[in-house]
Every structure is written in C-alpha cells, then in structure tokens.
Amino acid sequence: QVQLVESGGGLVQAGGSLRLSCAASGSIVNINAMGWYRQGPGKERELVATITTGGRTNYADSVKGRFTISRDNAKNTVYLQMNSLKPEDTAVYYCNADILGTEGGSYYYTTDRWGQGTQVTVSS
Fold it and tell me: Which sign does the torsion angle of CA 39, 63, 122, 97 carry?
C-alpha cells in the first residue's frame, strides 16, 4: 500500500524557517501533482501550495512570497520551504499526491491520498 509520510515540523519563533518533507513509498508507478495543505485549530483544511509534474506551482495568497514548494521526482518527495513564519501559520500540515500505483497486480489511481500530518507551531 502506498503511504505518504510528512516530516520536518516543530516549534519555531516568528520570523524563523522550517523545511517540510513528504515522501511517498510503496508500489508506485508514478506520481502526478503533489501538494501541501494545513489545518489550524478549529479551522477547515486549506490549500497551501501545489506543484505539477512539470514544476508549475500555485500558492495560497497568505503564503505567497514566503513559502516555496518543490519536488524530487526520483525520490517521490515533495518539500515545503517555509520562511518568515507567522503565528497564523500554526497548523498541522498535510501532504497530498495523485498516485498511480499497483496492488495485487492491478493498477489503481488515487487523487485522495494523504499523509498523517506534521505539526508546525510558530510562537510570537
């Protein structure tokens, strides 16, 4: 079974930086788009950034100019470099990927595969 595992979260002071990673593992044929989402306390999950196979990126207005999404296709990994962090960035960050994989000799394609999340806390 294909899994996504996020890492790199932690506690950081306002103005600091963190680099999140999300690695996909399992019987993967290929990965199309990848993205990062976050969910703050008492809030709905929201889109942070996405990146296509060709490297086209999209960002939420709240993080433009501060966050950078990138990917390493050979490692099936997506990254989120977060600079100039603000307290309002505090949330659990989740990665998502569109994956073509195999299970029991059969192909499957999912656009709804999520990692377990990594906590980012920004103190003032």
Answer: positive
